[in-house]
Design brief:
With about 220 residues, this protein is of the alpha+beta class. The two termini are about 20 Å apart. Strands 1, 2, 3, 4, 5, 6, 7, 8, 9 and 10 form a ten-stranded antiparallel beta sheet that branches. It has helices spanning about 5-30, 35-70, 80, 205-210; strands at about 90, 90-95, 100-105, 110-120, 125-135, 150-155, 160-165, 170-175, 180-185, 190-195.
Amino acid sequence: MYTSTHLTTLLLCICLCSLACGGSESTAESTETSTPEATESNTDLGAAINSANAGVERSLEQLGQLQDQNNDRPILSQEALGAMVPGSLGGMSQVEESLETTQVAMGGVEMSTASATFKDPSDPGKRLDLIISDGMSAQTMGMGIGMVPDMDVREGNKRTYTTEINGHKAVIEFDGDDGTGQIAVMHKQSTVVIEGQGLSSDDELITAYRQLDLGGL
């Protein structure tokens, strides 16, 4: 399941990989020998790194252009997203100091994310993790809600399916064997993800989402 949260992680990984590759190139140059074979190998490696970095830059530039074309408003600040995170969710309290907010800007792509964890002290095995991400969703990629394919896949006690909640497309996963699940709800240019453990049913994920005040999205 691809969400804007995953995309944020992907963009950060791409950036780190680019820096790491650049460092590797410098190391190769400092340790290269005078043999023709080593020189040719280092040349090929440098060309491959340069090509990969150029591809990353093009991809980020294209994503930035899609944001400019398809998003209706500026990216919300991390403070605005943090204000949407409640003190309790699904009957569980927010874990102290679990609230994290980030704002990423790379190659013209901007994203803001707020996340928090909720737990029940009387039930250590139960928890919810909330992630609100702004800047990238179906509309950003030029897809209307009708273009997101419907699905209903069952594998034993595990089910993955789509539905609509308050006019927003949602993808829900739930595994009845271990009580784990996830709901990802796509807003125009935002995605809200709730992951859960120790749940009795997927209804707990849907109920938790409905408890959020997301008017700012």
